[in-house]
From TrEMBL:
Protein family (similarity comment): Belongs to the binding-protein-dependent transport system permease family.
Keyword Transmembrane helix attributed: yes
A GO cellular component annotation in the UniProt record: plasma membrane
Compartments where found: Cell membrane
Gene3D superfamilies found in the cross-reference section: MetI-like
Protein name, entry field: ABC transporter permease
Xref: SUPFAM superfamilies: MetI-like (SSF161098)
InterPro entries according to UniProt: BPD_transp_1_N, MetI-like, MetI-like_sf
PANTHER family registered for this protein in UniProt: DIPEPTIDE TRANSPORT SYSTEM PERMEASE PROTEIN DPPB-RELATED
Species of origin: Streptomyces yokosukanensis
Length: 306
């Protein structure tokens, strides 16, 4: 993980310098400036230093928890992230709750009941999976915020209750695609488990159907569901950028969109590196939880190493 994060930091830092334009052009706002003024800006942000020097200086500061100073906001990037990260984390938590509850419920109903219920879930999830988050954001905003006036159309509110109210539509917009994906994965995993011999044996012994589903079907499907849940969390970290911009939510996603537009290198680099680190952390947690959910994984690994 350390080596991967080091390589990612190099890519994150270097990729921005390949894009056209520079922070100096944004700071000048299209105005002409004397060579002395441009040189002062370059000196302030170390833009004239060799690439290797800039990267090593930035990496050393990051290891000390200093992400630099925002070119757009003229303040420390750490302070910007501290102000905006709670909003994004709350939005991700709300979305993840909706996805896990509804996705698991729909997948279970489709696998267990079959027939019309299964067909209805497949049709509904096909629609959900085929609807990108930014399209869902526009549709929900137009219907429930503008036309019906049930929810705010923008902002993130003040206080926890108001924030929950403001983030409801963004959470639904983010959850729509992911609910469809999780429901389909859950349905498929449970159908595979239902076809297993252990289920047939349990039923032949007179084990109640609810207990068969809970202990022998759903439990065996949890490994696949957990892996998908890790992918869902990783997807949310990226999808929030578009949805926060659509609803003008003052989170990290909107900050990244604005920082990219204005060539705010320190802010973009900090957020990108944090997203990479969170991706890695989520994958690590999933890998650690999988043997607890499905002991066969730990057993297989032990036999392979032996």
């Amino acid at each position: 993980m350390a080596l991967t994060l080091l390589a990612a930091s190099f890519v994150v830092f270097g990729a921005l310098y390949l894009a056209p334009g520079s922070p100096a052009s944004f700071l000048l706002s299209g105005r002409s400036a004397s060579p002395a003024a441009i040189a002062a800006i370059n000196a302030q942000y170390h833009l004239d230093d060799p690439f290797a020097v800039r990267y090593l200086r930035w990496l050393g500061d990051v290891l000390r928890g200093d992400f630099g100073r925002s070119i757009t906001y003229r303040t420390d990037v750490s302070a910007l992230l501290t102000d905006r990260l709670p909003t994004t984390l709350l939005l991700v938590a709300m979305t993840l709750t909706v996805v896990m509850v509804i996705g698991l419920l729909l997948g279970r109903l489709a696998a267990v009941r079959g027939g019309v219920t299964d067909s209805a879930v497949l049709v509904g999830t096909t629609f959900a999976v085929g609807t990108p988050s930014f399209v869902a954001a526009v549709l929900l905003q137009g219907l429930f915020a503008v036309r019906l006036g049930w929810f705010p159309s923008s902002g993130d509110g003040d206080g926890i209750a108001d924030m929950l109210w403001h983030l409801t539509l963004p959470a639904v917009a983010l959850a729509l695609y992911l609910v469809g994906m999780l429901a389909r994965v859950t349905r498929s995993a449970m159908l595979d488990a239902l076809a297993g011999e252990h289920v047939t044996v349990a039923r032949s012994r007179g084990v109640p159907e609810r207990q068969v589903i809970r202990r022998h079907v759903l439990r065996n499907a949890l490994g696949t569901v957990l892996t998908t849940a890790g992918l869902i969390v990783s997807t949310l970290l990226v999808s929030t950028i578009l949805v926060e911009s659509a609803f003008s939510v003052g989170g990290v996603g909107q900050l990244l969109e604005l920082a990219t537009t204005t060539k705010d290198f320190p802010t973009v680099q900090a957020i990108s590196l944090i997203i990479v680190a969170l991706f890695m952390a989520v994958n690590l947690v999933v890998d650690l939880l999988l043997p607890l959910v499905d002991p066969r994984i730990a057993l297989t690994s032990g036999r392979s190493s032996a």
